[in-house]
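Bench log, entry 3. Co-assembly request; chain sequences pasted below exactly as received.
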Amino acid sequence: MNLFQPVLGSRIVKTTTVFGAMLLCAGNSVASPRHVERRFKVDAHPIVTIHNPNGVLTVKAWSRPEVKLVADIQSDKVDFDAEQSGNRVEVNARAVSSSISPEELRADLEIFVPEDTELQIHNDSGSVDVADVMGDMAVDTIAAGVALEDAAGYLTIKTVAGSIQCVRCAGRLEITSVSGNVKLLEMRSYNVRAQTWAGDMFFDGEFLPNGTYRLKNYSGLIEVRFSPADSFDLSATSVRGKVDSQANLAPPAHSRGYESKFSHSLFGVLNQGKAKVELVSFDGTINIHKRD
Amino acid sequence: MPAMQCSDFQDHLEPWMEGQCPPEAEAHFRTCGNCRGLLADLEEIRLTGRTLGEVEPPPRVWSAIREQIEEEGLVGARGWRNWLPSIGMVWPRPAVAGATLVVLIAGAFLLGIEARNYNNAQRWTQGTEAATRPIQTNLGNFELHEVSALHGPNQVVNASFQKNLQIVDKYIAMCEKSVREEPENELARDYLYGAYQQKADLLAEMSERGENPQ
Amino acid sequence: MPEAEAIRRAQQGDAAAFERIYQLHSRRVYSLCLRMVSNTAEAEDLTQEAFLQLFRKISSFRGESAFSTWLHRLSVNVVLMKLRKKRMPETSLEETTDPDEETGGPRRDFGVADLQLTGSVDRVNLQRAVEQLPPGYRAIFVLHDVQGYEHNEIAEIMGCSIGNSKSQLHKARMRLRELLHETLRNQAREQRQAVKSEAAGEG
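Structure output for the full assembly:
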């Protein structure tokens, strides 16, 4: 027996409160854009999680102990809320109608965070841009491209089709994609593991001593730039494609696991071989070229 | 029999919340606003508790565990290749993916572990085909019957999923061909495992988006 | 990989099996830790510790109980040990649940209409209130009302009787009610003061 009718009523009250302005606008037009600004005071190392189906997401660091959110939501078919629980801020956008156009689904978000913020981002389509944030980061998109600049920490990026670009990033980087291109520029990471199936990969950065740099694709180009002063132990293998290297490599000290009569491989050491570089492709081309 | 007092009713609160409502307690409940309010509060707390939900741990937690178990020798440190099939699983898949996908991913691992034990080309070929046939069937069935019926509200995402599913299917076909032609090519087999895994991962994401539209 | 297969392979040191076990259970374990300690860094450490203990002991798992129950018992123990080390205060609920002896009715705090919780409990307030519960109550509330375990499962996880699980849960909810009422009263007071200050400013 359910004697708890007031509770059911309370759920409707709560839902109305959450929807807020959206319901007020409902009687006026089907697609009514709205602008939302929120601020949350936070302590050190806050966590910000964002779930957004479609839109341009920009995250920038600033010096205030606050998270500021500026959102432009294109229609009232998107339920939007942002709430704080302790040192965690959650931003959620969600379609409330199954019949919704991409434009109606769009919510553009600009978020300012302390630089030591940990970010967890799910932005399916649109784009994701993050700059100057030094906390750990996990970004998950389907079709949205991802661009990180001056980020540091444990950075995990996963897309299906979105391209990925990281500039001047440090720390540990893990990237997976199905068809997105991967571009890593002016990198200062000590551990890079990047994989895409159908995309091209480009790496230009420092090879830190004891660092590990692994790039893998199925088809497409893998290109790595180096300077003569760099020091790395190279293993480059393509099953069906070519491996082309301009590096003046010394023979490796020991045999390699991938060495096989079925693949085109190149193994060798540049200078003392302090970093480890592993490049694998199925039928793509691997280029190891000198910087201009 | 004297009417139940509030203090007596509160002795019945705990079983009441478990669904046991004796008639005399119900009678008191109907007439006492205080006790109705109390019960409504407890029910509100119970229901709101459900909404606190589950939170995914960040990827670094697994990385730290993995490093530690390798260091302790609980698992052989076979290097990147041993973890290779799981690089697509940086994000743990939600339970909504279901037991079917668990079987598919299991197949990819089994293929990786058992095929390495084969020591002649014929056995490799037979073993590979025997292992991959159920995977192909199950992946195909899951795609046909479950995932194709699910469409999230984001048309851009739906189109991207379809396109990338075709890309992965193409790679699976190419890898299978390669493994048939050169069954001893370990790298080709690694790619094949990875391709199945990627497809399962993609289907799981599609399933999740379709059932829980964002 | 099905769980049974993963356990078997993990007992043989299979790396992929360990990862599979982690994937199957990490959300629940992490969520439990997070709701218990309300601090993400600590929750991560506790999750890591729980899984490390699990992987170290996995060869001794013989299937006497469900694997998930075993894991969650281990996780709860890891969390409770941590909280005990921090010497969380154990407050008694007895004085807040005893009815008024003269009237036989509930204490005035209960069921006061203008402060009823219905419609006013949000996740943020509830989480804050949960953080103030004593560890034992907190564990049972999180296991039952947040994670959905039944009392027989909680009894196995916590090493208590089913009856004890039910009564502890009830006490946890009553305490949460007290805490949430206090929050509502404070918020109402702050609002009144804000209105007064505004009126004084305009006057």
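DSSP finds nine helices and no strands in chain C. The radius of gyration of chain C is 21 Å.
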